[in-house]
Amino acid sequence: MLRVGASSLRPLVGATARSAPLNFRSFSNLRPNVLQTLQKQRKNFTLSNLKFPRYSTEIPIIERSKPVSWQRIALIAGGVAGTVVLLDGALNRETRDSLSMAERSLLNSTFAYTGTGLAVIAATARVMFTSGVTFRIMAANPWVVVGASLAGGIGSMMGVFWTPPENTVQKHLFWLTFNAFQAATLSPLFFFNPAVLARAGLYTLGVVGSLSYVGATAANDKYLMMGGPLLAGVSVVALSALAPMVLPVTAVRALAVTEAIYLYGGLAVFGGFVLYDTQKILKHARMAEAGLMKRDPINESVGLELDIINIFIRLVQILGMGNNRK
């Protein structure tokens, strides 16, 4: 399952000022006076007449770090907790019994692999950014980069899915390769302000945590029926991402609508995928317990990683746009 991530340029139009009518033929009469003035200024020009700003090299300029706003952190934590309660009350009117040992084990293993994979992606992307690999990727042919990233990402993901869980070494190598391709795709995000990335990560943690809790405590297979609508939604989001390649630059309103669909519609769609994938993990745990399939937390983690990455990317873009408006 492939779940794939547009800016607009706004030309500035200057205003022209109207002056008193001027006879352009008289410009030749003004030229000698201008030359004489320039010659006088050239004779009087010396470096001592210039005034340069003086900077002291003895005292380093250090930007003071802003104090931690515990009030803001408390408000964010309260907002996340309130969101979890509201979502649980709105979506989980019919709850289930406590998780079985098999369900709890597979769910914990899947989220452990998901967290480890995201940590590997973040660390690898940071190394690529600081070592200059990101700049070389961006300077290359964009079509070659897109083709290589899609081929490598999809190929390594298929390798993870098709490798049986008994072949531990090969499966982990495919999994690490998949994370490396995701890191190469996400490394340009480090051009954003670190505060924006931190806020987006915090919000992503709150969104995914609350939706995962709702999916784990909901009635069995309640959100598995969302597979068809979610597939249609992700298709619309993917087409809206390709809209700038088709629509003319003058279609400003259409581009704005497609960008809104890509950002906010994508948030809704991939939030639904978190619910869907969480309940799919629990169903696979029950099937594995019954001997109908093999227990494979690495396969389950790939879908959750893609959901979290897509939510994080959109939150970074939304927060970045908000900072640009200030």
Automatic annotation (TrEMBL):
GO terms for cellular component: mitochondrial inner membrane. The chain crosses the membrane at residues 73-91, 111-129, 141-161, 197-216, 223-243, 255-276. It is found in: Membrane. Its main location: membrane. InterPro entries: Bax_inhibitor_1-related. It is a multi-pass membrane protein. It comes from the Eukaryota. The keyword Cell division does not apply. Keywords: Membrane, Transmembrane, Transmembrane helix. Belongs to the BI1 family. This is Bax inhibitor family protein.
